[in-house]
Design brief:
Length: 310
Amino acid sequence: MKKVLITGGAGFLGSHLCDRFIHEGFHVIAMDNLITGNLANIEHLFHLKEFEFYNHDVSKFVHVPGDLDYILHFASPASPIDYLKLPIQTLKVGSLGTHNLLGLAKSKKARFLIASTSEVYGDPLVHPQNEDYWGNVNPIGPRGVYDEAKRFQEAITMAYHTFHGLETRIVRIFNTYGPRMRLDDGRVLPAFIGQALRGESLTAFGDGTQTRSFCYVSDLVEGIYRLLMSDYAYPVNVGNPGEITINQFAEEILAITGSDSKVIYKPLPQDDPKQRQPDITRAKEILDWKPKVERSEGLKLTLDYFRKVV
Ligand code: UDP
């Protein structure tokens, strides 16, 4: 039985990855220090003998006994308000944590995949963003702690690949949504759905004309799984190119929730990217992957989840 370590395993994406690898017949070790993760996301797995959970901060030395075939590094605060609250931890998990896990991968001869991000493109001057674009990031702005940690993570991962010959994979994840997002993580989807279900006004930041492209979590997990099993070591964008403004998104949330809430406007956070859309040509060519779940369907599935937790 192949063994995989998933850091951030109790988080939104990490927990869906745990489910997928269990489903594929792997032995799964989830590691998380639970500062933004939640055991409720994986409690349905605890009874399985193929599943283990380690409560550990990967910024400190990581020990895992026995063999490991794959390591997926998904630990990190990942929403703007989380990494504003936890700036040092965000920098450490992307840098020290990645270094520790690369060392572990090297000693176990495991294949290593990192969760990188569209944030490496910053407030992009190229649209849509392809993997050859180097980005427009403010290193000392409020998002710098996340963006630069992820850029360093890519750099050190590539160095282990070229210098040590480690098998590495880099996925650049664009906005993703689905069940198990935290209602209070500050991201636009949980914020809007929470507000709509509570009958509060929806808070659009700026004038709401900035754009994002939202990918349903099952599509993302499929792309990551295919990338891990491929032999491609360079970054691959995984996301849904369907781009909308935040104003349009607010209207969609009002429509699916049946809410008569208003949209109100709040100041735009500093360095908030004005537009974002993945160019997924590379993922199509190399992974034969493209998203399948329409936003209308994905939002319905996500709303079912949030109705239970609001
Ligand atoms: N946003 C918003 N209202 C909210 C939360 C977010 O208008 O209550 C906007 C935010 O300014 C950004 C977009 O929605 O332009 C997506 O924000 P999110 O925090 O989900 O992720 P980002 O893509 O910025 O990392």
